[in-house]
Amino acid sequence: MQIIKDLLDGDRKALARAISMIDNEDPQSKEILKEIFPYTGKAFIVGITGPPGSGKSSLIDRLIHLIRKEDLKIGVIAVDPTSPFTGGSILGDRIRMHEHVSDKNVFIRSMSTRGSFGGISNATRGVVHLLDAFGKDIVIIETVGVGQSEVDIAQNADTTILVLTPLSGDSVQILKAGIMEIPDIVVINKADLPGAGISQADINIMLDFKNKRTWRPPVIQTITFNDVGTQKLWEEIKKHRSFLEKEDLITKLRAERYQNDVLLLMEKIIKDRIWYTVRETAVFEKMIQKINNKEMDPLSAAQEILNSIDLTNHE
Amino acid sequence: MIDKKIRVLAAKVGLDGHDRGIKVIAQALKDAGMEVIYTGIRQTPEQIVEIAIQEDVDVIGISILSGAHLQLLPRVTELLRKEEADDILVVAGGVIPQEDFAFLKECGIKEVFTSGTLTGDLIKFIKENIIKRE
Ligand code: B12
Ligand SMILES: Nc1nc2c(ncn2[C@@H]2O[C@H](COP(=O)(O)OP(=O)(O)OP(=O)(O)O)[C@@H](O)[C@H]2O)c(=O)[nH]1
Ligand SMILES: [Mg+2]
User: What is the CA radius of gyration of chain A?
Assistant: First the structure.
């Protein structure tokens, strides 16, 4: 396929178009993902999560600046929520990422969640592969700051950063949600505001109490306006990376991720298959009728339908 | 295949801080089910075109109230042609006198929507005029 060739040749328009195809679940996107897979595995993936407005995009802007100083190529996927009511979205993360727009080694793509609940979109994983194959050294994913479903990003990133703000009560919520196991680095951004030291101490205590891992997540303060702590953040990312690479934990991490990918893809294929087979069929409608009239229960209906479908048959 | 979403870049060009209009437009397009990328104020034509390419948008909507539309808007369409990205639909709005419409359209701005624009008309225009790719 020409688009794959162009993408691997470094054509950013082909990359941009391929991302859309994956996002739109275009039939050709499967072919693209299959063919580029051999070219993936080189990029280091950084996930950035945290409550809305904590400063994720502003931090990414500063990280881009530092990463470019080392002449590394960088891709950013910035996810914002889709309105469940209209299906539309306003993707505003770029407001904070102006500085590097004309730098050809920086590629930024805004995406909406499009009905996925995990803080990133269903297509995100595929888009990471595209950026990786395109030759990006570092891929940064900014999640929707939801506060509960950060598990998805930890699953998809090599280093996960949780961005909090001083005394916002976040730390208690974080504790409640039990997501302290997720970050590899915790950032207290907006450290220019009062209470950053207290928040840092709180989180350190929590981490010492809860941490069972060999990697103890560092907690650092940052101020994005004048680059306080941002260099330290980049150093910590590199430290975590060496930690993963030294013990070859990264191979294990990636194997787990592939296992998860395969499971999710199988689920998706079967789901699609079921849906395409049954939707708008008379049998399906009749069953729903029966359930409505209390002549049948949903579980029996599901079992009956499944027994009648050939799930091994591919499209 | 899920429905292809219309992607729009909502942009402010030049040294123009009036951002109420573009926010109204961004919200209306979002409510119409579109994905709207908003980049904030003070963008150069070069930045707008590069963002439009990376984001693979179908539409660029530019808001300009500063009076510099005759310089800045043609620059955007010129750069799009240079990048072979002139299949993107470009519309503009803000404070633009009627007598400038013809020149802007000659330059490749497909339509101009000024004060009093009905968002319904804009949405209809976009849906009817975007280029359906592959
Ligand atoms: C409010 C306002 C301000 C506010 C802006 C607040 C803000 N954050 O937006 C403040 C007070 C800050 C301001 C400052 C200035 N302003 Co002022 N301002 C206005 C005013 C009164 C209304 C603009 C407005 O918000 N309208 C409401 C919105 C909803 O309407 P709209 O922007 O026109 O958008 C609608 C349509 O145009 C269209 N649309 C707009 N954008 C787009 C984009 C697309 C893609 C589409 C399809 C449609 C579309 O749809 C919208 C909804 O219908 C106008 C006068 C006027 N009648 O327009 C002057 C006006 C724009 N300002 C003007 C000037 C000169 C200034 C200053 C330079 C004044 C000064 N000397 O300091 C500064 C410059 C600030 C800057 N950094 O750019 C002049 C511009 C002159 C010109 N073009 O030749 C105007 C026209 C006043 C005048 N008659 O002289 N201003
Ligand atoms: N005081 C202060 N404000 C900051 C700092 N960093 C970012 N902000 C402000 O915080 C607000 C949100 O910043 P963003 O970078 O957009 O935050 P975000 O987490 O990406 O937001 P969402 O993507 O909407 O969840 C903006 O108004 C920033 O200017 C900081 O270090 N100190
Ligand atoms: Mg953001």
Answer: 22
Residue/partner pairs of A190-196 with CB below 8 Å, 24 or more apart: A190/A54, A190/A55, A190/A165, A190/A166, A190/A223, A191/A166, A191/A221, A191/A222, A191/A223, A191/A228, A191/A229, A192/A223, A192/A225, A192/A228, A193/A165, A193/A166, A193/A167, A194/A166, A194/A167, A195/A166, A195/A167, A196/A166, A196/A221
Q: Are the C-beta atoms of A137 and A73 separated by less than 8 Å?
A: yes
ipTM of this complex: 0.94
Residue B57 with chain A: CB contacts under 8 Å = none
Among candidate residues B82, B79, B92, the one with its CA nearest the CA of residue B8: B92
Q: Which residues contact B101 (CB under 8 A, 6 or more apart)?
A: B112
What architecture (CATH level 2) is domain B7-127?
Answer: 3-Layer(aba) Sandwich (3.40)
CB contact under 8 A, A19 and B50: no
Residue A213 pLDDT exceeds 80: no
Indicate if the pLDDT at residue B47 is higher than 70: yes
Token pair of A86, please? 């209209």
Contacts of B43 in chain A (CB under 8 A): 98
CA-based radius of gyration for chain B: 14
Read out DSSP for A103-123? -TTEEEEEEE-TT--SSS-TT
The structure's pTM equals: 0.93
Q: Alpha-carbon distance A204 to A200, whole Å?
A: 6
C-alpha distance from A125 to closest chain B C-alpha (Å):
17
In the numeric block, which tokens belong to residue A34?
């299959």
Inter-residue contact B84 to B114 (CB < 8 Å): no
- In this structure, of A108-112, A138-142, A209-213, B35-39, the range with the lowest mean pLDDT score is A209-213
Residue with CA at minimum distance from ligand 2 atom 7: A55
- Which structure tokens are listed for A151? 């598990």
Query: How far, in Å, from the CA of B108 to the mean position of ligand 1?
Result: 24
Burial class (CB within 10 angstroms; exposed 0-12, middle 13-18, buried 19+) of A143 = buried
Q: What is the model's pLDDT at position B1?
A: 41
B contacts of A94 (beta carbons < 8 Å): 37-40, 51
**Which residues contact residue A54 at a Cβ distance below 8 angstroms, ignoring those fewer than 6 apart?**
A145, A163, A164, A165, A170, A189, A190
Alpha helices in A140-248 (DSSP H): 151-156, 170-177, 196-210, 230-246
Parse chain B into domains and list their residue ranges: 7-127
CB contact under 8 A, A20 and B46: no
